[in-house]
Write a structure and sequence with these properties.
This protein is an alpha/beta fold and 317 residues long. The radius of gyration is 22 Å and the shape is globular. The two termini are 27 Å apart.
Length: 317
């Protein structure tokens, strides 16, 4: 069996993978361009997903299974994959710990004035007036799109004695939140938040979900965070809300256009923290993804057991 990856993991992962499955042929390339010739006769493809096109799928005449080592599939040519009846699995579930820690880290950065601390260190100032620094204690966190990641964020937030409100599609209860609302009560939930974090995926129903009226109901000292997908809010809408001081700060990890252009206004806005889509990235990201791959390779090889994270191509997740 020929298994091609369009990225290169660590040497440790490569050695472990080849040791576990010495009978298979593994090819690890730096990019989709380097891997193009190998993909043509590959049986299995490992990818982050955003590098695939319908043309590549058509060229890959032997391809039967794609393992996506991320959760999002919105950039993949799902129709072309579906027409070929190719199995798709992803790495859903591995993001909850790093993304939860990122969320707490960014909230603490804001309330404890992390940017200012860095600036005064660079200026070598002994400045101790931090009377405007705040605490997470007693604040209300609203999690929009609460699932596995949101539940982990809620668990950590409770350690800081925060009140947690969750929003999901139907208002299904979640054991880690104090209150839960269905998505059609989003504005009521938003109006209560000191911190609002969106973990929504990119779907037809979530695209540009956040509109002017949603920012209108937010507290003026609220912090809005987007760590799900960038297209849940238009850049122009978010920029206008920030300029109109409808919130105190925005933390943005995902964007309508990625990479974020160097001339984008977000880079220079004082009350915006930009991170380059790294909320889930730690040294354990790929090891966790490969554990899912190893399990699914066993299922694929021996046609026994069940795939982890088998994607429904009709739904796109």
């Amino acid at each position: 069996m020929k298994i091609v990856a369009t990225f290169k993991p660590s040497d440790e992962i490569i050695i472990k993978t080849k040791t576990l499955y010495p009978e298979e042929t593994f090819i690890f390339q730096e990019s989709i361009n380097n891997a193009f010739d190998d993909i043509k006769d590959a049986d299995v493809l490992l990818t982050f997903g955003e590098d695939l096109t319908a043309e590549i799928i058509d060229e890959a005449i032997n391809l039967k299974w794609i393992m996506v080592v991320s959760a999002g599939l919105e950039l993949m040519p799902l129709q072309a994959i579906k027409e070929r009846d190719i199995i798709v699995t992803n790495a859903r579930g591995i993001h909850k710990i790093p993304m939860a820690e990122y969320t707490i880290f960014m909230m603490l950065q804001v309330v404890r004035q992390g940017k200012r601390i860095y600036e005064i260190q660079q200026q070598r100032k002994w400045e101790r007036d931090f009377s405007h620094a705040m605490e997470l204690y007693g604040k209300t966190l609203v999690i929009v799109g609460i699932g596995a990641i949101g539940s982990e964020i809620a668990k950590l937030a409770k350690a800081f004695s925060m009140k947690v409100i969750g929003v999901n599609k139907s208002g299904t209860p979640n054991e880690h939140v104090d209150e839960i609302y269905p998505i059609n009560h989003l504005e009521h939930a938003l109006s209560q938040g000191d911190f609002i974090v969106s973990i929504l995926p990119s779907t037809e129903k979530t695209k540009h979900l956040f509109m002017d009226r949603h920012f209108d109901v937010m507290k003026r000292n609220a912090v809005f965070m987007n760590i799900g997908r960038g297209d849940v809010v238009k850049d122009a809408t978010l920029i206008q809300a920030i300029q109109d001081k409808k919130m105190a700060h925005a933390v943005v990890d995902v964007f309508e256009q990625e990479p974020l252009p160097a001339n984008h206004p977000f880079w220079e806005m004082e009350n915006v923290t930009v991170t380059p889509h790294i909320s889930s990235r730690t040294n354990l990201y790929l090891p966790r993804a490969f554990e899912i791959f190893y399990h699914n390779l066993q299922v694929y090889k021996y046609a026994s057991g069940e795939y982890s994270n088998l994607v429904d191509l009709n739904r796109g997740y």
